[in-house]
Amino acid sequence: MADQLLTAAMEDRMTWNPISSAPRDVVEHAKELAHIAHAGQKDKAGNSYILHVSRVARAVSDDPLAEAVAWLHDVIEDCPEHAHEVEWFPLDVRQAVADLTIRDWMDRSPYYTIIRANPLALRVKLADIADNSNEERLALLDEKTAARLRKKYAKAIRELTKETNDGR
Fold first, then answer.
1. I need a labelling partner for 53 at 20 to 30 A (CA). Which of 15, 40, 132, 137 fits?
2. Domain enclosing residue 133, as ranges
3. Looking at residues 148-168, what average pLDDT do you find?
């Protein structure tokens, strides 16, 4: 019952007017939305998913906009029922979150190109991959899954950090 009341209170607080562009307000609202959207979700090892999101946010916490994007980076993709709430955020935050969102129809190559073109999205994605590829986390998975993820993340890093013809 207490959990239901807390959830209801948090959801009531989520009916904001457009979020002020004050950096700390943006971060606090992003953190709040992430906690609501990812409530009850588990990662591949069975841990609370918000712990991953929190670590990514902490990794980029020297930049409030990057931190807000980090809190929101999986909301559209993993919590579509909350995707509309991202629209309350400032344009640069919304754009970076959109760029980080993998669409079912999208091949990974253009996905990485899109992220490389957005410095805010790129910074958060690199922090996301660093957390996802952390050997302590991978050690919690079966060896086959861990090996597949190591390969996937190594390829993602190569794609995200390669130089293009235009110098990016």
1. 15
2. 2-161
3. 83
